[in-house]
Every structure is written in C-alpha cells, then in structure tokens.
Amino acid sequence: MNARVRQPAHTTQHAASYYAASVNRQLDFPPLSGELRADVCIVGGGFSGLNTAIELAEKGLSVILVEAHKIAWGASGRNGGQLIRGVGHGVEQFESVIGADGVRELKLMGLEAVDIVRRRVEHFQIDCDLTWGYCDLANKPSHLAGFAEDMAELKALGYRHELRLLQAEQMHQVVGSDRYVGGLIDMGSGHLHPLNLALGEAAAAQALGVQLFENSAVTRIDYGREVKVHTAQGVVRASHLVLACNAYLNQLNPALGGKVLPAGSYVIATEPLSQAQARSLIPQNMALCDQRVALDYYRLSADRRLLFGGACHYSGRDPADIAGYMRPKMLAVFPHLNDVKIDYQWGGMIGIGANRLPQIGRLKDQANVYYAQAYSGHGVNATHLAGKLLGEAIAGQASRGFDLFARVPHMTFPGGKHLRSPLLALGMLWHRLKELL
C-alpha cells in the first residue's frame, strides 16, 4: 500500500516574524539525498517531530527526520509563545471511553507537559527567554466562577505552583486594561521564544545522532513492514514512521488529514516599548489570555515588544493585512497604544480536532505508523508530551499515557477538504453570537 501527494513548493525561509528576526542561532540542514535506513523516520520538523526524535535517540534508536521547509517552519516557530498547563478542553467528556481514572491521568499529563518543556530547556541549556507567570483573564463573571473551580481542581491534583484568584479591582496588578472582571494567576505556566526553543531542540537532536533534513517534502509513502518515505531526491527506509505534520499534513495521509482542521491564527509585534510603557501594560511580565471563542492572547518579548495574537480563522483565507486586522483588537484592550508602531505581522495554521483533544496514536491498518496532531492551541506543551508518549510506545515501553490518548476516537470533519472549513466557520460564528447573549 502506498500514498502519493503533490506538495506545495517549499520555501527556504521562515515566516517574516519577530521570532525569525531575533533567532539566536542559525541552523541549516541539507535536503535528503540518496537512500538511507533508520529505525524510525519522522515526517515533520516542528515540536512534535523534534521531541519524538530526542526521546527516541535517548533510548538508543536511530532516527531520520525530514521537513518539507525549514525546522519549525510551521506553528512551532510562529505561535504566541505561551506555555500553558493542560491538554484538551473539557476532558471529562471522555470518561465514558477511558473512565474517571483515565480522565484524571489526562489532567495530570496536562501538568506534566509543561514540566517536560522546563526539563528540556534546563537539560540542553536552551536560550529561549523562558519566563514564568501566566494569567487567565475573565471576560464575564461566569468565567471567574469557572476559574475558582479550576483552582480547586488543580490543588486537588497536587499542583505545586502558586495559584491566585483576582477580583476586578485587582486586575491592574497583572494587566493595564479595564476590560476584565477577574483572573487566575498561575506561576507554573509562562511564555518563551518558540523558534529559539525549536532550534535549540534541533541542535540537541543532532548532537544525539538524529539525522535532520530540510527542504525535503515527502512525495510518497510506501507502507508495509518496512516503510519507505520518498522525497524528490531521496528515500528513507524505516521500521517505524511518525507523521508529525499537524495542520500542514495536506494530503499526505487523507484519513488523518480529515480529522484535523487547519485554522489561521495571527500575531503582531509592536516596536520596542520603554520600561515604563511595558510595565504599565503587563506589570509582572506574564503571558495573558482571555476566554472568548475568538480569544486574545498577549505578552511581552524579551526586548519589551507587545506580542498580541488571536483571531482564529476557520475560513482558510488569511487577512490581506494582518496588522490592519489585529491592531483594532489590540487597541480594544490597550487604547493608549494608538501611536505605537507595529514592526512585525505574521500568521500560520494551527491544527484543531473536533473534540479539542490532541490526537496521539497509531494507524489501525498500519501498526508501525504513529502520529501526533490537533493540539487546538495548546501546542507548545502538548507537543512535548506527545514526543514523550510516542517515544515510549515506539521503543516498546509500557505507556499508559499513549494508550489513553489512542483509545479516544476522533471524528472526521464533514464536508471533505473543501467544505469542512466553511462549515466549521459557520459553527464558530454561532458560538460567538452566543457569547453576546
């Protein structure tokens, strides 16, 4: 059995983002050429692929990773840089499938995922501006009530980091805006420079013996006991295959691709602010995120720029002018930034699943083919968890976590490739209208 796909033309550059302009290392890997053999071939050079490669290499397996563009070219190198606890949304919905104990395990893994990033940064001494401190922002009283429940549950799970509930009159401790009615501070979550993290992990993987290839789009996969992964100039033969393309899977595997919806998310970065300006916006240098369907998320960079993101688009079409689209959203939160210039604007695709739980498992008809995708906005931490779980499963180690994720079914979005995005866009419009009621 084999699969062929026509890939879009590759690019040798990252998106023109603040992150690409402030990388602290330059890595260049060659295109795949000739025929190579490894225990595992990984398709996709984002956080999922890189961390799976690290986990496997540390277990003594030989690994080849192929990336269609540049390492971390997709969401891993473009996202808002928020490192927030948790995986999935409303994991209680899966109790009928994995039981109450399984739901509790998912919640604990959502906390462990952040610690995996913490340990990765510390172990490999990756300079990525990792900063601790995060605040959930309540847009209405019901959100604040939900935060109180979240706080109680986190304490019951043994969460070891500081949590603090804020009322409306306390919000200026964390954000210079009158838009919110309360918040939940979490000192176990935070923010970082995602592209520098990914490049640091790529360097770590290479040091562990992983062979990495860029500008090597996969054109065909021959499945079987030995998998053959074809690119324009080379072939990889492997005992195991990992598909870690997420929103950029395209038609490489239509069955998997139908279960993840690419959705556009956008970020703008201001010019550097003065210390006084930055302190007035985010006094404690936290990452912040509100609770609306079309959420806002924002933070300060290491050089005191405001990075403001959000506006998830399900239409499949990017705004013609990202800064023009995002700036009014920023000014709705911080109207006094009207005279501040926008230096960078960029966007990219995140992968969303119908039930908002990361999809981690193996193909039913190909037991040696694994995948991880559909992080639904929690990718920085969940990708690192996925790498750990995939590494355990492929190495033949008992992995209750992998088994739990693999047991959860994921529906295929209706409408096929061309209609699923418009259909979901209509559904999300309904949810946004409900917020106004």
UniProtKB/TrEMBL annotation:
This is FAD-dependent oxidoreductase. One of its GO terms (cellular component) is cytoplasm. SUPFAM superfamilies: FAD/NAD(P)-binding domain. It comes from the Bacteria. Keywords: Oxidoreductase. Residues 39-392 form the FAD dependent oxidoreductase domain. InterPro entries: FAD-dep_OxRdtase (IPR006076), FAD/NAD-bd_sf (IPR036188). GO terms for molecular function: oxidoreductase activity. Pfam families: DAO (PF01266).
